[in-house]
Amino acid sequence: MSLLELKNVYKIYGDLHALDDVNLKVEKGEWVSIMGPSGSGKSTMMNIIGCMDKPSKGEVLLDGVDISKQSKKNLTAIRRDKIGLIFQQFHLVNYLTAVENVMLAQYYHSIPDEKEALEALERVGLADRAKHLPSQLSGGEQQRVCVARALINYPEIILADEPTGNLDEANEEIVVDLFNKLHSDGTTLIVVTHDPEVAEVAQRKIVLRSGKITKVEENKNFTGKIRFDD
Amino acid sequence: MFLRMIRGTLFRQWKKMIMIAFTIALGASLASAMLSVMLDVGDKVNQELKTYGANITVVPKAASVIGDLYEIEGGDDSSAYLKEDDLGKIKTIFWAFNIVDFAPFTNVEAELPDGSEIDIVGSWYSHHMELPTGEQLDAGMESLRSWWELKEGSWINEQRASENDNGAMIGVTLAKRLNKGVGDTIHIKGKAKEMDLKVVGIFDAGGEEDSKLFTYLHNAQALSALEGKINSIEVSAITTPDNELAELATKNGPSSLTVSQYEKWYCTAYASSICWQIQEAIPDCVASPVRQVADSEGAILEKTQLLMILITILSLIGAALGICNLVTATVMERSQEIGLMKAIGAHNSSVSLLVLTEIFITAIIGGVAGFFAGFGFAQIIGHSVFGSAIEFRVMVVPIVAVLVVVVTLIGCIPAIRMLLGLRPTEVLHGK
Amino acid sequence: MKKRTMFFRMITASLMRRRSRMVVALLSIAIGATILSGLVSIYYDVPRQMGAEFRNYGANVIFTASGAEFDVNDVNDGKDVFDSDDVVGVTPFRYENVRINEKPIVAAGTDPEGIKKTSPYWRITGEWLSSDGELLVGANVADTFRLKEGDFIDVYYTPEGSQSADENGERAVVEDNIKSFTVAGILDTGGKEEDYVYMTLADIEELTQADKGRVDVAELSISLSADELADVVDKINTAVPKVHASLVKRVTASEATVLTKLQALVLLVTIVVLALTMICVATTMTAVVAERRKEIGLRKAIGASDMSILKEFMGESMLLGFFGGILGSVLGFVFAQQVSINVFSSSISFRPLLLPVTVLISMAVTGLSSLMPIRSATDVDPALVLKGE
Predict the structure, then answer these.
(1) Is B430 part of the contact surface with chain A (CB cutoff 8 Å)?
(2) Domain holding A144: CATH number?
(3) CA-CA 20 to 30 A from C307: which of B292, C24, C70, C83?
(4) Interface residue of B64, B304, B306, B323 to substitute, partner C, most C CBs within 10 Å
């Protein structure tokens, strides 16, 4: 059974078909990237997979549970237990230190554990910045805190929405390296991105256009590293 | 474009703007309510203090010097009396408007059939007067002796005097002595005339008046052939508490004042200047403030006003800080939008101008609404406490306006400083 | 680490690290609480303080003899029925007919210290009556005899019985008592007191050489409301048989009327000011919370339930309310104290109950006013909040 399966998923706003009969399967441990221009339905799909929105029609099976049929409250619980979110704008709580931001996810999930949170920061290479506030961190560092927060509860899926959109190349590489590390640890990754370089790294690239999947590309020579064309 | 942008904020961000306007309205209403009440509280409390009775007594010049000392008998010396005809003149003095009540008194002694003596007082009870100014006034004991407790019957009704012009009221002590009740008749023998008076009311004054008989002025005058003559006048006037100038005038006499001091004194409603004016109006009289009432009124008025001023200051500070706070909070919230404007090349000055204009349009709307609401609150207070409207004072308008403007401006300063310090990149990167 | 520890760590972090915003909120709550505790203190203190001012009107209780005579001791017995804190002043009076320059005058013997308390409105040109041998002269008397302060004057008293003619129809030799006095001051009251002269009780006893300790009337100025006074007066009339106590209606009734109005005024003002301030606090709290919609969205996105978000934000608001309330109580007390000292030149007593009440009310107001925006923020889909605006 696939970890995630979308069956004939529609999301309709009035006349607009944000998602139009989307079918997708993601296996456990897979690294998938979703590409597409603005308005192609990337974000809608991302929100639905992230349990922040429900499809108008169709089934979304996560770990065998149809999340399109769940109540809001259950969705929150599923999101908490199974999904780690990474945002373009990082969305760190600005008055909490790096380690506290990580602990926040633990707090809502189960029990906050500072040691574990510090370990997570260490994994993203920020052990020495643990006591810093977001405003004292660079964009790349903030995004790494965000990654640490996303992985702290060992989610089934890490869902990244334009994770490198606000980063320079050096930081972009660091974040992709982190994804690679997560991937080799067996974490399922779904990365929504504009950036072809980031999209190419994944094992499978899905292209959305006007709410439909128009192209699926398998990456035959997957290395988990950014391949710089020039 | 500027106007368009402002319109944009006002209409599209109407929720936030309404909140600011609402807070400013609250602050302004608080300010205007408190100011209106504060400015009027003096007059209102002064009216209330009238329950203590007259604060000025007027006696004939001769009497004030000789007084009871020589026990001058009525009729011997016309200078020992005031003329009833002169009474109306009291309402012609400069401060006539401040004289809220007055009553003449003619005191005579008479004999009862058993030969014992009785003190008779003739006065007004609810004497209706139509003044040359067109003003109407009901003057007399009914309001000057508000502390009298009617044990039986009613006050002497002067409006129906023609039907019942031999009415009399007696004090509880006298009632007990005579063993008379309402409806009983008392036969009285005066120096000049005998008459039957009918008891219409029995009162308890808690003082020496309890052993006296009160009747119409003309009855008392007739008993001793004192037609048109009165012993004293009690005047209840709204006065300004004495200050140094009034003290000076009282101590050394008005003639010791300089011309400008005199004018100021004469045109202020001090008890002493009202007395002076009464003496000018009524020939051969001495008007003097009743210290017990006049001084205490002054003290209580002063305290009440001071109390209200301090409460007003507190609420003004509260209102000011409240508005300041919210303006700061709301402007700061818009950092992103303003960062964007700066990013596309807006100058600091134009950004500040935009924010200020928006806030001020909101503030003006809120301020005007608040002002009227506040005046409404003041009326509620006025009616429920004093049973009369709080007067509209023009002075409140500029005070509230300045307050709103200054406070809003102060509220904007930290926000604007923060906005100017913003670096557009940071804001847009969504920190 | 326990969940609760993290809870408090988050709240304190929010309060400490978002200092400027929190100061804004705290300030507004503190203002509200200051106004609440300040005005309530004043409201409760007004009757007492104003009551003291109303003592300017002088005596509100009069003692007279219920039988033929009573003396200073009876007056004291009657006075002792009152709580000594409520007694502003007691003045005994004894009236006698005397003569000055062969003209009859009423002389009153009294206690000069008491009279300052029971008749504070007396105006004296010159000095107050302070010791034996001094005379306070009413303005009318002073006019008649052209007296001024510092003058010497002899007062004549004819002992009772000496004026009656003897059996032969000849008048007995009048053995008048004579005493010399210095005029201390001239009295101006606008009332009948201006026709009298005042001296100490000891002097009038010396002058009359009779009835030691006799008193005709005693004036008392008592700091109690009309109803309370009426009760005590009844008590005196039963407990002290020689004294007949009565209320000075003019003073007590009028005081009750005016004082009721004044207190109603302060009450209404308090209510209006409070209501407006509370709304102000509420709008500020609303703004403060509304600002954090994004954060609430984020917390939801990483898996926070509505309940736990509500708990955290409410916890924060309540904490703010708590500290604001305490700060406000203190400031309010300081304010009320200042008002009291400035207006009434006396201090107010601290009301311990006011502290918890103020704190509770400010917590309730901040809590309730945060509830709405928190609710509306948690109702929104986190995706919208995080993406949008």
Answers:
(1) yes
(2) 3.40.50.300
(3) C24
(4) B304
